[in-house]
Amino acid sequence: MHWIIVPVVLPAMLAPILAFVMRHDMTLARTASVAGTVVLVAVALGLAALAGGGETHTYQLGNWPAPFGIILVLDRLSALMVLLTSVLALIVLIHAIATGWDARGRHFHALFQFQLMGICGAFLTGDVFNLFVFFEVLLIASYGLMIHAGGRARMQAGLQYVVMNLAGSTLFLFALGTLYASTGTLNIADLGARVAEIPPEEAALVRVAAMLLLIVFAVKAALFPVQFWLPATYANAPAPVAALFAIMTKVGAYAILRVHTVAFGPDMPGTAGLAETWLFPAAIVTIAVGAIGVLGARRLLPMIAFSVVGSMGTLLIAVAAFSPIATSAALYYLLHSTFAAACLFLIADLVISRRSGDSLSTESPTVQNGFFAALFFGAAIAMAGMPPLSGFVGKLLVLDALRMPGMMGWAWTAILVGSLLTIVGFARAGSTLFWKSTAVEVAAPQAEGGPQPEEPAHRAGPAEVAPVMTALAALACLAVFAGPVSAYLDATTAQLFDRAGYISAVLNSGGEG
Amino acid sequence: MELIVASSVGVLTAGGVYLILRLRSFPVILGLALLSYAVNVFLFASGRLAIDMSPILSKYGGATYTDPLPQALVLTAIVISFGMTAVLVLIGLGAYLEAGSDKINVGSGGEADRDGEGGS
């Protein structure tokens, strides 16, 4: 069973070939990159089918047994995340190729594949130090993608992003050092077994390490006190890259879910109640920051970036409950918000490239004004959480899961008011961009999207629209098949919270590698 | 020994944090380098400080040995932080050349122009 390592090895092999062999031939690089991503989707589907049986599969690198060697763990959750990553990557990649973004700088495809390697590795690994290494892989690729195509604002925002994440990495290493000094292991399953044996009065160092790790993951997940890097980064990154980054915040959420349930679970005497105490209020403030940002933004891309912050708040508020039902809701919302954010960024890219910039001001309508307006409307109601798309189902599940005393008042108020403000923000932006624009020029009400010869903007071809439509279709499918999806997610959550099963599967694995 | 290691980690961290909070990119990069030195020493010490012992079980040297894992971790951390610092210097240089100043702040937030659309 070597398939578990394929999502890491495949992009890792493809990226150097793209960088060194195919760098002068854009067509070849595009073909290879798309082919590699399609294979990745196929492998991810196979792994999801394998994990769907409910077993926890492990892969021992170099055949070293678990607490000593590095181990990759495939359960339903990691298979789901890898599948989500690969599907999103394919959508984003086709958009980047169709709009020509990949040709505006060098090595887009190589960096893209390295990014996929890091993300897939972070989802699959069962070792915290290895998690750090994969974080660095995905970060260093994201630095390159972030400043792809250059430009003053982008370089400055990129510098901020790099500095922020390097500080986060340093904190990560401090946390790992503390953890190793106090427990003597860095394997997540082994940590789970050992932390459970530490009595509360001796757990001070472990609690410090758990808090440091929470802060590090919160930086990735854009949680309140450390969320300020996200709007500047996403708003200045190339739009397809920002769409791919939609999965990067989810890496942080995944890491919190994995490490703070298995290693520092809520039922451990030493670290009980640690994460949820801080996560819950921080998530509420995050929702508020996101909603206010959406309302206050004067440009389209920062507005979408703030809506991502808000959606991360909603996601983490459900994570903070650390109960199976809330986690299942959080996972559904995670799937939804990834596609919703990516879809919004891709549509924004299509719209902005046909306008003079991304400021929310009225201009004469672009070609296909009504069509883009419909796409934007669809993605915006998904992100804001209106029926009929999956955002509504997701928020409903989260609200339903948080019906517990002490949490319900705050959580419901934050989510509902936040949703309302997001709806207002998006409605205002949409009407400024698409509706009021039709009143700018007297000759504006032309036939729907009739190509004007003097218009420099060209009509969006099928290849440019297809990725957006796919993302919207994914959102619709999530809503239509909400029943089967939540049943699968319930099973996923049950497996995640079965700590004993995870630990014994990893530590007693005979090794399938 | 413990006092020297602990205080050096503390001093390096304090200096690094101070420099990170500066407004210009060069001190910030120096601060991150200092922080990475601090964390390397810290990681090294997380396997307990043992003097004059080999990191492997030796047939001749008795049963005592120093923990080899933190040394492997430090090696990885050094390589990664070295590479990251190089990337950071290049990006900082790029931002300086593009913007004409090495201020770490993105210029007046709202209307930061997107003049790089055309490609480099």
Structural class of chain B: mainly alpha
**Uncertain runs of chain A:** 442-455
The CATH topology of chain B comes to: Helix Hairpins
List the secondary-structure elements of chain B in sequence, H or E: HHH
CATH architecture descriptor text of chain B:
Orthogonal Bundle
What is the straight-line distance between the termini of chain A? 6 Å
Bin the helical content of chain B: 55-70%
Q: List the total number of helices of chain A.
A: 19
CATH class division of chain B: Mainly Alpha
Number of strands of chain A: 2
- What is the subunit organization of this protein? heterodimer
Strand content of chain B: under 5%
Which two chains touch over the largest interface?
A: A-B, 41 and 48 residues
Number of strands of chain B: 0
Flag low-confidence runs of chain B.
Answer: 108-120
Q: What is the end-to-end distance of chain B?
A: 52 Å
Strand content of chain A: under 5%
Output the strand order for the largest sheet of chain A. Answer: 1-2
Mean pLDDT of chain A: 89
Rg of chain A: 22 Å
Can you offer a commentary on this structure?
The complex is a heterodimer of chains A (513) and B (120). Chain A has helices at residues 6-20, 26-51, 76-98, 108-124, 128-146, 152-183, 188-195, 204-221, 229-236, 239-263, 274-296, 300-319, 324-352, 369-384, 390-401, 408-435, 462-480, 482-497, 499-507; strands at residues 57-60, 71-74. With 513 residues, chain A is mainly α. Chain A has a two-stranded antiparallel ribbon. The longest helix of chain A is centred in the first third of the chain and has 32 residues, at 152-183. Chain B is mostly helical and 120 residues long. Chain B has a single domain (2-50, 67-104), classed as Orthogonal Bundle (Helix Hairpins). Chain B has helices spanning 2-20, 25-45, 69-99. Chain B starts with a helix and ends in a 21-residue tail after the last helix. The model of chain B is unreliable at 108-120 (pLDDT under 50). Classes of the chains: A mainly alpha (513), B mainly alpha (120). Chains A and B meet through helix 5 and helix 6 of A and helix 2 and helix 3 of B.
